[in-house]
Amino acid sequence: MASNFESSIQSGGCDFIHDFACSACEKDGLNREAQHLCNHCTKYYGDSCVPVHNKLYKRHTVLDRKDVKKWAAAPGMLDVLERCERHPGEAPKLVCGDHGQLCCHVCVAVVHRQCSSIQHIPDVAKGIGKDPEFRQLPQRVAVLRKQIEDMKNDRKKNSASLRKTRTAIVDEIKAIRKKINDILDKMEKTTVQDLDRLVADQELSIKKGIESCTQMDDELKNITDDIQSKDSSGEPPLYIGFRKCKEIIKQANEILQNMPSVVKYEITFRKHNEIEDNLCSVTTFGELNDSNVFCKQPRTSLFPRDHVFATNGYKQYNVKISSDKDECDIEGICELPGGEVVITDYNNMTVKLLDQKYRVVDHCDVPENPYDVCHIGGNEVAVCVNKNKKNRHEFHFINITKGKLVTTRKLSFTHECFSAAHHRNNLYISSNNALYVYPMTGELVEKLYEDKSGGDTVMGFAISNDGKTIYITNYSNNQLITLNNLGNKLVTFTDPDLRGPTGVHVTTAGNVFVCCWTSNTVLQVDNDAKTKLATLARKQDGVYGPKALYFSSRSSSLVVGGKKDTLLVLNVR
Predict the structure, then answer these.
(1) Rounded CA gap, 508 and 335, in Å?
(2) What is the C-alpha separation between 467 and 485, in angstroms, rounded?
């Protein structure tokens, strides 16, 4: 029978104490009496659980209640308190003080032969019932089980909440789809109406032409018939017919001359490619984000927001390829979800794909000098392509498929296009002195910020993960500008090491890094951009004319690009 201690912490199922409880039900927190024993599994089963067992293990020997006397003698069927964890057929009779473990005779012989503190359990167990810690066990177990139960219930509630959220999002997606369908239906109806109107107009014109031709033909036939019928009536009737026929011929010629000489009426149709292109450019109805309220920082970052970085060595990787005609000049860097890196080479007018070891595995040419590159989503990036003399200001979308770079479409702008970022389905593009916001389709939403105090006042920029803060490098005035998401200036940061700032990057956790062309430095500033936290690298560390940088949480490194055909990878900690 179960002990008093067991009964004090019994819960689940009924409150009866069974001499043998169903093993399967116990796993589910239920207390149900066992009616069967499997010698092979060394487990007990109730009437409702044994059919499942028997179906799975047809060759196992199962004893029912009429053989209950054999249960306790079955191999491994000692009571849980009388069963050695390592040797289920043996009972723990000893305790090892060196290891703090209960032992059977086999344990002592095999594992604890060298131990010096082996004691007989009956000797150690004297007075255990009066031990305060033992008396508190039921309460401690009850509290712990309550915590476990609460945790299970919280997760069940969370699961139910997730299902409700999914239903709500699906409903919203269907509503969006219906709205799009309604728009498309309206477009179709309007286009067909325009087509019907054109067809009706042309058919009316054709009908009028036919009627005019028929009338002229009838009049000419009738006058010639009249003349022929008057042939024997003398010359006066013939003369009258002659004059009238000439008048009708004159009218007919005038009508023919004024009638359009249309051989064939036609209607052509040229579809708007923008509709299909825009739909193809958007792969989902919206952006899905998962979050864990217990996480103190985003999963993609190993470092908290206020972490001050230090360098732990660096390496340089050559990214020059055989087709390059000039020295590589890296203007943009971004990382794909799989760890591949995409860079833009200004001098050689190419976009290059690097593997996780920074080896060039593919490249594609662009029509003019490429500047920044930003990650759009999945394996898609977009590159700023700019040439003022040719008035080319474009944004090229590139997909990475099976290790190949494939340009899919482009957007054109009336202003220069130097730096870019994608955030919550919007494109942010700088023109060197202004920052613009566009949807993915390319129509201007707003000019968020502008500074005409110099030629390169919006050199580069980065957006915080929550979209509330924007960091801008002002190259002309040696400043790092911080804006809110309304374009209002919050902070202007300067520092002796911040000379000619170019690239800026903010991690998902909020760590901010800046590279500077003139001072050949890489800096870390606090997330409010009020204080320099560290100068991480200088020219002596391999920094030379840096223009772009990117923090890789995958490898805990800062990737810096500039001139000299190389990427500088700073290991940080």
Answers:
(1) 13
(2) 7
CA distance 560 to 358: 12
Do 514 and 504 touch, CB atoms closer than 8 A? yes
CB 374 within 8 A of CB 331: no
pLDDT above 90 (res 534): yes
**CA distances in angstroms from 477 to 414, 443, 500, 539, 548, listed in the order given:** 26, 31, 8, 21, 18
Q: Residue 477 belongs to what H/E stretch? A: none
Longest dimension (CA), the chain: 161
pLDDT digits (tens, 9 = 90+) for 486-521: 999 999 999 999 999 999 999 988 999 999 999 999
Rg from Cα positions in the chain: 43
CA-nearest of 2, 7, 8, 6 to 139 is 8
Spatial separation of the C-alpha atoms in residues 134 and 140, rounded to whole Å: 10
Helix (H) or strand (E) holding 299: none
For Cα atoms 457, 461, 467, give the angle at the middle one, nearest 5 degrees: 130
| CB atoms near residue 453 (< 10 Å) | 10
For residues 496 and 541, the answer to whether their CB atoms sit within 8 Å is no
Residue 434 has pLDDT above 90, yes or no: yes
Q: CA 453, CA 474: separation in Å to the nearest integer?
A: 10
Beta strands 360-365 and 350-354 are antiparallel
Where is 1: in which H helix or E strand? none
Q: What value, to the nearest 5°, has the Cα angle with vertex 72 and ends 70 and 78?
A: 150
Alpha-helical regions (H) of 282-346: none
Determine the Cα–Cα distance for residues 374 and 489; give it in Å rounded to an integer.
24
Contact assessment for residue 148 and residue 156, using Cβ atoms and an 8 Å cutoff:
no
The two structure tokens encoding residue 240: 């009258």
- On average, the pLDDT of the chain sits at 85
